[in-house]
Amino acid sequence: MQPIAIRDVSLNYDTPGGKVQGVTNVSIDIDASEFVCIVGPSGCGKSTLLNIIAGFLTPATGQISIGGKPVTGHGMDRGVVFQDFAQLFPWRTALGNVSFGLEMKGVANPERDRIAREQLRLVKLEKFTNSFPHHLSGGMQQRVAIARALAYNPSVLLMDEPFAALDAMTRDDMQRLLADVWKETRKTVIYVTHNVAEAVYLADRVVVMSAHPGTVKTVMKIDLPRPRDPLSVEFLDCQKQLMAHLGHNTNGVAH
Amino acid sequence: MQDAVTISVAEAAGESRGAERWRLIWRNVFPFVVVGGLWEIVAWAGIFPQRLFPPLEQVAASFYQLTVSGILPHHAIETIFRLLSGFALAAVFGTIIGVLMGRSRRAEDILLPLVSIGAPIPGLAYAPLFLLWFGLGNFSSILLVGFVSAFPIIFNSWTGVKAVKEIWVRSAQSMGADDKRLFRYVILPGALPYILTGLRLGLAQAWRILVAVEMLAAVPWGLGWLIFGARKFLNTDAMLAGIVVIAIIGILLEKYVFQKIENYTVVRWGMTAK
Ligand SMILES: Nc1ncnc2c1ncn2[C@@H]1O[C@H](COP(=O)(O)OP(=O)(O)OP(=O)(O)O)[C@@H](O)[C@H]1O
Ligand SMILES: [Mg+2]
Questions:
Q1: What pTM, to 2 d.p., does this model score?
Q2: Which pairing describes strands A61-66 and A69-70: parallel, antiparallel, or unpaired?
Q3: Would you call A104 and B170 a contact, using CB atoms and an 8 Å cutoff?
């Protein structure tokens, strides 16, 4: 699909209270079809970085290119799932939301409807096709948002803690689903998470960020065969290493 | 056994739903019963001459007579025509101007000061100007109604466009919406709750100005004319009949236009502030 090159990207926010550091000197190279997770403490700039890659924020310094082309703004090559529940259009049903990208692409109706329904089925919401977002729970809304980002088939997926609000069981299902979708479609994925086990389950590589200033601390390769078994010794070992990188006390993690 | 229990529960629910409905109706009617009662007491106590403070049955009788003779409907139709024409002008141009101000920085810079100065001036203050410029009659009253009721519509559409969530805009853009489609599929529905509020306020404004202007513009028919004209002949019952018609038209517009639109859009979408 598309490789992504992030070079020396920095961004500060101007706020009434002064300058707030968003991200500082971030450089990451991501291969085509690679699954990269970004982890780090709250406020270290994960969402900021994702928004820069999505093209919604322009970095003060540095540049980003996708498939060799410099990023100058948003584009249909990138599908985005935001951290915020409120990203769905309240005036469209689940189906209408998922259809949006296809509509913009000019996909005509029997086909558009079929694809959208299929995506909703994948995230297990086929019963809620005609529900408006305010009748769905937070987790369900987030799943619609994922279906929506997948439906128009962008080559890069940018996801900001999409499963953080789901219960453990649904989250496991969704992680498995995402791993399957990724295996099938070979999209390049950048996935922000707080959850160490999630990062180890999904990622080819995990980028560990640190706060103040928000920058890349280390990059850890996860060399486990897929599909991964979260209960295997190797998996727990990886988790432990990642925790150590994050600066957690790892005592008693590997039971 | 199981069935019997279920049925009796259902019956109880049905019964309580019926009771609930009666309570609701009573709650809506109660204030009118109280005011009506007090009115009757004052009317019959002879505090005012009965010509000036007629009892309700007399108002009802005159309402009936004016209606069957076709006089009241004629007044009402003329008024509704002016109201809706003026309001339609305000709705179309007000929304366009407001949305434009919300979308374009330049338009905002130019128009906001003008609108901010124009809005707080009482609508009636513009009336002599309009009458001088456009003459007496329908045309200038409709124009004035449109002008005055456009202000709340402009303000609310402008606020509504500004209140559209950035994340909706970003989602739409990342899915490939160009400016035109962004506007149609995201900005307009996103701003709709505010636009509807603006239209409601605009209609209220239109009523207020219209009733007074019908007198000033020397139009031969209209509820405002009826009410003011009736004063000359101490026809208090005709005045009250005119007021009742205004109330009825207001309620009908609210119930069968605004609430219908709202239920179909912002209520269905869960976008009402609650
Ligand atoms: N719109 C904004 N205006 C000003 N400062 C902001 C804005 N968005 C983020 N920041 C600041 O930038 C820093 C990074 O924020 P960001 O949202 O990228 O963190 P994050 O890593 O995504 O955190 P979390 O895990 O809690 O979502 C924080 O210090 C935050 O206060
Ligand atoms: Mg974040």
A1: 0.82
A2: antiparallel
A3: no
